[in-house]
Specification:
The chain contains ten helices and 16 strands. The chain is α+β, with helices and mostly antiparallel strands and 338 residues long. It folds into two domains: 228 residues, 2-Layer Sandwich (D-amino Acid Aminotransferase, Chain A, domain 1); 68 residues, Dna Ligase, domain 1. β13 and β14 form a beta hairpin. It starts with 11 loop residues before the first strand and ends with a helix. This is Tubulin polyglutamylase TTLL11.
Length: 338
């Protein structure tokens, strides 16, 4: 680590949070300029929605979304029209603050009038989405998938998807949302950083059990039940590629303004975390994209009140070490010289 920068050039610069570090004129940086802005909830929703307008059938993997506060009247009108045309439709919506992470500030509602239109929504914009009420359950629990995607270059567009990811489980058996259980975060929200505070959270030494498992262990279970796992993978790959295509035009604008063509500058690559939910019919739905997915391979365990220690997490280690190893192999500058 070089907290104050370094004078000699490197082959690879590995940054913590963002691209900007002024003295890089060569080598490769593990961040794209503008990526953090592009995958925020509102920007991502806008980019995907632009594509949904053009190619509705190709981009049907992202829940119907509205941007608050600016589209609140539109949200009210559209929900009312849909309810009028289909009285049996009893939707649930999930409100996600634009800059929130780790489940912070997320809540579920049944009707537009339930939105907390206090000062916070004005100062803290959000996305409201149709909540997916029929997720695939494993052991009666809802879970999501964190997949790691390497964007190796924008021109030409080069994308790699890690063969394994993490499955992060809720800690209370799932029931479809009702007014009585809307607030039960351990049932509805799959965020690891929320569920770790649940009394039911299980830190496992085994990739097949516990509250965090490998995605491959889930695929094995699905395959043993006769599910078409090949099709599922193909749908996931398609979702990842189409999402990145939706982000590419604006990413290129950021890239060209920071690294103008013809001037010396680094090239970029970046590991993204894709959060995906599987529906009961095995259709993958995109929840969000994370520009800085955690690469920690241990978890905190509370020994006594307020006293924590770091304990290795075999599941994280199995998936993340491979992701970083293969990323470094793919961007390895030595390869070109050999």
């Amino acid at each position: 680590q070089f907290p104050f920068g370094r004078r000699l050039p490197c082959d690879i610069y590995w940054h913590g949070v963002s691209f900007h570090d002024n003295d890089i004129f060569s080598g490769q940086v593990n961040k794209f300029p503008g990526m953090t802005e592009m995958v925020r909830k509102i920007t991502l929703s806008r980019a995907v929605r632009t594509m949904q307008d053009l190619f509705p059938l190709e981009y049907n993997f992202y829940p119907r979304s509205w941007i608050l506060p600016e589209e609140f009247p539109l949200f009210e009108t559209e929900v009312r029209m849909m309810k009028d045309s289909d009285p049996s439709w009893k939707p649930t919506f999930i409100v996600k603050p634009d800059g929130g992470c780790q489940g912070d500030g997320i809540y579920l509602i049944k009707d537009p009038s339930d939105i907390r239109l206090t000062g916070s929504i004005q100062s803290r914009p959000a996305v409201v989405q149709e909540y997916i009420c029929k997720p695939l359950l494993v052991d009666k629990l809802k879970f999501d998938i964190r997949l790691y995607v390497l964007l190796k270059s924008l021109e030409p567009l080069e994308i790699y998807i890690a063969k394994d990811g993490l499955s992060r489980f809720c800690t209370e058996p799932y029931e479809e949302p009702t007014l009585k259980n809307l607030h039960q975060v351990f049932m509805h929200l799959t965020n690891y950083s929320l569920n770790i505070h649940s009394g039911n959270f299980i830190h496992s030494d085994n990739v097949n059990t516990g509250s965090k498992r490998t995605f491959s262990s889930i695929l094995c279970r699905l395959s043993s039940r006769g599910a078409d796992v090949k099709k599922l993978w193909s749908d996931i790959i398609s979702l990842v590629i189409k999402t990145i295509i939706a982000l590419t035009p604006e990413l290129k604008v950021y890239y060209q303004s920071d690294i103008p063509a013809g001037k010396p500058g680094p090239t970029c690559f970046q590991i993204l975390g894709f959060d995906i939910l599987l529906m009961k019919n095995l259709k993958p739905m995109l929840l969000e994209v994370n520009a800085n997915p955690s690469m920690r391979i241990e978890h905190e365990q509370e020994l006594s009140p307020g006293v924590f220690e770091n304990v290795p997490s075999p599941v994280d280690e199995e998936v993340k070490v491979a992701v970083i190893r293969d990323t470094l192999r793919l961007v390895d500058p030595e390869k070109k010289r050999r």
